[in-house]
Amino acid sequence: MQVSDKVLTAIGLMSSPLVDGVRAAVMRTDGLGEVEQGPSVFYPYPRETKVNIRRAIKAAREGLDEAESIAKALDDVTTAHIKASLRLLEKAYLTRDEVDVIGMHGHSILHKPSPSKDVIGRSWQIGSASIVATELRIDVVSEFRQEDIDRGGRGIPLMPVYIAALVAKLDRGKPICVLNISDKAAVTYVPASCRPEEMVSFDAGPGSNLVDEWVHFHTGEIDDLGKTAALGTVDEEAVKLMALNPYFRRSAPKYLDGYDFKMKAIEHLSVEDGAATLTALAAEALEKASEVLPDAPEGWIVCGSGRHNDIFMKELEARMQAPFVTAEEAGWQSDDLHAQAMAYLAVRSLKKLPITYPKTTKAPHPLTGGVYSRAPV
Asked: Where are the domains of the chain?
């Protein structure tokens, strides 16, 4: 058996952007078409860790690289990744010797891709892969974004190559679109060939970020899975006005910035009506995304936390012109997808296979990536 054909057992670790914990998942894969999903666990962050991570994000954005908050968060995140891995090994009845590699994303505290060829971008994920490798005695691959960033790419998204492998197993023979609805609404178009080089991936528009920002500004809370939006009425005129945002006319791949959308069109609305309207805008953004796809997809698969938001799903059903199913209905473990992707990318990295592509990250050509941390013998 060639190295490229060998099936490996990998663990994927993903720190949630919601700053609530670490997801760990087991996978058996050859880094190509063989994908066998295994058990997973979620390790919640203690309150102090959540606070430290948020402080670290603030410090990183302010350029305070040596801030004590970043050092504390790094230690906390590293410890959480080790504990999540140990829980997973126990649940999956695996010994350390039975795991070939760990794919570790870490927690992003800064992501600033290069705005031009003359400026070097930066992507910073905290969590010490070398300590995880040493403590668990399992090799770790991390820093998947950096090679792409160094070559002028955006470093995001990392999911498409794994999504292509999952879609290929569905054996439909027609284009499929996958929607990942979380803080933003990301679209990955997988062609009938399922070739990663032909995929297109981009941010369609806002997800929960604008709704949560709106509700937090007024109440200090967030719109927990549409609870506030459910009490409001959609202002369709405001949706139409916000849908004129020039972002929607940009060609793909494109990536949403936190400042791309303003709230002026809804500032006269109540908290509830504003939340309902912004939820409708997120659904409208996905309908607009279909206008920039290479081809009309046969259907759409919805994953991410947004699939649990009944208000959003109702708006999506009302506005979409094509059938869609949830990730679970497609046979996927939606909550585990990002962690599984890290395991898949780790195996691809070991085999020197590309993980990012021009039509997904704006990389100059297909690029491999990842930094290898060897466990002690």
From this structure: 3-156+336-373, 160-322
The superfamily (CATH) of domain 3-156+336-373 is: ATPase, nucleotide binding domain (3.30.420.40)
- Residue 111 has φ and ψ, to the nearest 5°, of -145, 105
Q: CATH code for 160-322?
A: 3.30.420.40
Give residue 364's identity as a one-letter amino acid code. Answer: P
Tens of pLDDT, residue by residue over 333-360, are 988 999 999 999 999 999 999 999 999 9
pLDDT digits (tens, 9 = 90+) for 221-279: 888 788 899 999 999 999 999 999 888 888 878 887 766 788 889 999 999 999 999 99
Query: What DSSP string runs through 125-185?
Result: EES-HHHHHHHHTS-EEE-TTHHHHHTT-------HHHHHHHHHHH---S-EEEEEESSEE
Whole-angstrom distance between the N-terminal and C-terminal Cα of the chain? 25
Instruction: Decide whether 3-156+336-373 matches 160-322 in CATH topology.
Output: yes
Token pair 């090994």 is found at: 89
Q: Model confidence over 153-208: pLDDT tens digits?
A: 989 889 999 999 999 998 777 899 998 888 788 899 999 888 888 999 988 888 88
User: Is residue 275 within 8 Å of 232, Cβ to Cβ?
Assistant: yes
Entry pTM: 0.88
Q: Dump the DSSP string for 62-84.
A: TT-TT-HHHHHHHHHHHHHHHHH
Instruction: For residue 56, give both structure tokens.
Output: 């670290």
- Cα within 13 Å of Cα(122), Cβ side: 9
